[in-house]
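Appendix B. Worked example

We walk through a single record from start to finish. Start with the input: the chain for Hemin ABC transporter substrate-binding protein, Ferrimonas aestuarii, length 281.
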Amino acid sequence: MKPFMKLAGLSLCVSLSFASSAAERVISAGSGITELIVAMDATKKLVAVDMSSMVPESEKLEKLGYHRTLSAEGLLSVEPDLIIGSPEMGPKAALDIVRQADVDVEVLPQATDPEQLLKNVDTLASLLDTDSQVSDQLKQQINEQLKRIDELKGQLKRQPKVLFVLMRGDRAPKLGGGGTPADRIITLAGGSNGAGFDGYKTASEETLLSMNPDLILVNKPTMENADAAKMLVEKLPLLKFTPAGKQDRIVNLPTAALLGGLGPSALNSSEDLAKQLVEIQ
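Next comes the structure step. The output line below is what the pipeline stores for this chain.
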């Protein structure tokens, strides 16, 4: 009986050791990562985020600059025990200094497809030591949303042509092609990106008119989600004569949906887009 009690005591000590080593002061440097942490109701472990991250207003968190240009001094000033970031997090020199200070730095792949998104949920759940029921519930919600999007795609009579236009203040708008965050949303929703090229290119009013889009998604890079659709029509009034303009299908795409890869915001925008595409004859 005594050997068993000793073993049980040892087991308890090991268990307590692992529990005490769980991260409690976390920095999230990447909007997609922060979005998942919020969805997992684990914001209580956050002490700071980068400028691109969106958190509930009730959370009073330090903002430590943009995830590409972080400083070692800023990161260490909030005394983190774990920093989680995207592959764009940097610079490397700052992260090396933080690692030398015995702070764990973890990099998660950017989710470009549902499979990687689900893997990132599992990885975050492990890093943050969250209840497995919470991560399982989030993955179930993601899978259910993907199923709803697939069902909507099944109702499409044809593959509508969609354009994504990025507003840039006084400069000419840019058209988003293949490989862009908006393209991922369009494709997932069942639309066809009418750009016909990869990346971004400046687009004139005549170019957009000639593409004859069924729907136009618009964004102006700002965290306040300005009414970019209204701005676009005011700047390029002839767009009102495209199929998209005639059917009042020049719509805003939230900034959050374009940041940090495929995540809850991008899925929400894709589902909203899929609902609109179903209505196109």
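Two observations about the output. The chain has eleven helices and eleven strands. Residues 150-278 form a domain with the Rossmann fold fold (CATH 3.40.50.1980).
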